[in-house]
Amino acid sequence: MNVHDSERLAGLLESAGYVPAASGAEPDVVVFNTCAVRENADNRLYGNLGQLVPVKKGHPGMQIAVGGCLAQKDRATILRRAPWVDVVFGTHNLHRLPVLLERARHNATAQLEIAEALEVFPSTLPTRRASHHAAWVSISVGCDNTCTFCIVPSLRGVERDRRPGDVLAEVEALVAEGVLEITLLGQNVNSYGRSLGDPGAFAKLLRACGAVEGLERVRFTSPHPRDFTDDVIEAMATTPNVCHQLHMPLQSGSDAVLRRMRRSYRRDRYLGIISRVRAAMPDAAITTDIIVGFPGETEADFSDTLDVVREARFSGAFTFQYSPRPGTPAATMDEQVDRATVTERYARLVALQDEISWAHNRALVERRVELVVAEGEGRKDDATGRLSGRARDGRLVHFRAAELATGPLDEHPRAIAAGDIRPGDVVETVVTRGAPHHLTADGPVLAWRRTRAGDAWEQSNQAMTPTAANRPAVSLGMPARRPDPTSPQPPPTAPLDAASADACRVGVPAAGPR
């Protein structure tokens, strides 16, 4: 959801006349779109803001804006702790960023504006997408659940659903631009339609996406086990372009912990859903979220979680050490688990899940897979001479693109020129190795299809300068830190990561923002 919002913020800025800062250039505006789910988001934000003090001193007129969930939560605290910030805005008023930057510049004073309810649905805002072939499509915002560990409902508000016609109109417009794949977004996608008076709306929406010509892949995230119904399973299994991939948060395998978390399902219901999904789609890749060390979690509770992980056989899991969030009921619960115990349990969970994920991926060796070629997903691709892509089940595959088979694998493959296969193109290849978190395919490419998404990527790169051609649309990073021997230096901090905040770096034309 934060990446989706970051793309909208970048689109708003470009619509207002800003241009993205070239790689290595010092930006005039830095925007932090923050997360508040975990405690380290606070630490990383303020650490990175501290690093910008000497940069801003050496760049008169530079502006810093902080938005998103942490801004909605901390509000004026940000300006007290970091008075060099120019704009603070929240989750409900993303559209106000260009106006607030202009006002801060004109008035030479910081602007703080936090709305208490959604003013404009983010999906109606301009966007600068980070990918030509894949797009996020928000179907709802906010959440009506009351999980005791989660701060999202208080920061994103109650659930509001978009009308199906509006969602499908956006999907059709994206496909017309060359998009092959969409991901439907919501804090709880399968409660979609409740506010519209149609509890079965999500399954209907999946089927309707199947009728959009040219749309090859549909994904969604995240469902809640409480609302996961069999009509959704049927829609997934029978709609050809809906991927057999399911991310369904477990959080804990202990009924006692789930009760304290105020998660309105129990392990048997959860495992029953997994069983029905696998019966309908034996090839489904199922991933999850798990929290370790929730207040009151005993060794027996944790063992229950390990048992569910063994039984569910997840393809992968996002695992978290419990982080108290002020303002949530769990933060004040008794029996907070000590850090050493949490760390030790976390290590055991990760080891078990890595073993299961590795076994899943080894079983895919010699399997033919269809990939949409991605950009920037293989950090070692340049060194290994590979490209990377996503299979239909969401797995990341690093593949060789030097040869295209002209027949069976033992016949004479022909060479593929460097750069022929583009991000957004579709290839088929055979898996040669499985690792815990990715697959490798080092044989020839068996099939290759050029797509309109690849055409769009190529045209976009040809239109850019050589420096800008490799620049991502929404960058995660910081301006170079300028040493200032006259000022006290902030304490060392880990670099910004996507789990903490998205940093959108933009430059303002010399004549001003418009």
Question: What features would you describe in this structure?
Answer:
- This protein starts with a helix and ends in a 7-residue tail after the last strand.
- Helix 8 (201-209) runs parallel beside helix 9 and helix 12 (299-312) packs parallel to helix 13 (339-362).
- Helix content is 33%, strand content 19%.
- The chain has 514 residues and is an alpha/beta fold.
- The strands form six sheets. A seven-stranded mixed β-sheet has the order 20-21-16-15-14-19-22. A six-stranded mixed β-sheet has the order 1-23-2-3-4-5, with helices on both faces. The protein has a three-stranded parallel β-sheet with strand order 6-9-10, with helices on one face.
- It has 16 helices and 23 strands.
- Strand 9 (181-185), helix 8 (201-209) and strand 10 (217-221) form a beta-alpha-beta unit.
- It has helices at residues 2-15, 40-57, 69-74, 76-81, 97-107, 152-156, 164-176, 201-209, 230-238, 255-261, 267-280, 299-312, 339-362, 381-384, 452-463, 466-469, and strands at residues 19-20, 29-34, 63-68, 87-89, 111-113, 134-138, 140-141, 160-161, 181-185, 217-221, 245-247, 285-292, 316-321, 368-373, 386-391, 396-400, 403-404, 414-415, 426-430, 433-434, 439-441, 447-449, 501-507.
- This is tRNA-2-methylthio-N(6)-dimethylallyladenosine synthase.
